[in-house]
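Section 5: illustrative case.
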């Protein structure tokens, strides 16, 4: 029952000749559960058999997932425990309630700039092209700043905002270190 939590894809225990899976049936269902072990991202994680949190990867059964690998003893044999985290599902259950009912935006991003979760996906399309010069900072600038700096604040403008949308945002971000992998978490207040 503990595995059936938002954000958890499941846990895979393996010792080479024995594999046990405990998958979250609300995330990985039916035929997907029998093919999850064949996924290259899972296979790569099992090969590590050392403490490591991977970067977000495309995993066929769940679109995007993050694997955490830890050494484990399974039936008196040394092996690996591979936990599968689904960032989008985790964000929906943990982050969305914090900003619900507000015009605030929240983003979880890997340190390389890969967006793992955002409460307003359509807002990320309201940015000028990369080579477009603007007078004020845009989301490109805040994303680049978040890649470079572990924490900070910045005001940025929304490009071609719709009527009723905020014109700009006051963003603050910090870094969370999870098993050697850094995630940036940003909350941006609306400025109308």
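Designed sequence:
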């Amino acid at each position: 029952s503990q595995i059936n939590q938002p954000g958890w894809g499941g846990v895979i225990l393996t010792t080479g000749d024995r594999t046990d899976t405990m998958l979250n049936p609300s995330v990985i269902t039916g035929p997907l559960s029998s093919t999850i072990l064949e996924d290259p991202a899972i296979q790569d994680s099992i090969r590590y058999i050392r403490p490591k949190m991977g970067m977000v990867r495309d995993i066929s059964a769940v679109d995007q997932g993050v694997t955490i690998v830890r050494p484990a003893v399974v039936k008196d044999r040394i092996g690996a425990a591979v936990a599968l985290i689904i960032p989008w599902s985790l964000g929906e259950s943990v982050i969305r309630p914090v900003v619900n009912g507000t015009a605030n935006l929240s983003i979880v991003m890997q340190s390389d700039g890969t967006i793992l979760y955002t409460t307003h996906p359509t807002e990320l399309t309201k940015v000028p092209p990369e080579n477009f010069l603007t007078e004020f900072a845009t989301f490109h600038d805040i994303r680049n700043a978040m890649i470079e700096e572990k924490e900070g604040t910045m005001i940025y403008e929304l490009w071609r905002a719709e009527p009723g949308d905020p014109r700009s945002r006051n963003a603050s971000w910090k870094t969370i270190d999870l098993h050697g992998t850094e995630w940036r978490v940003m909350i941006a207040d609306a400025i109308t």
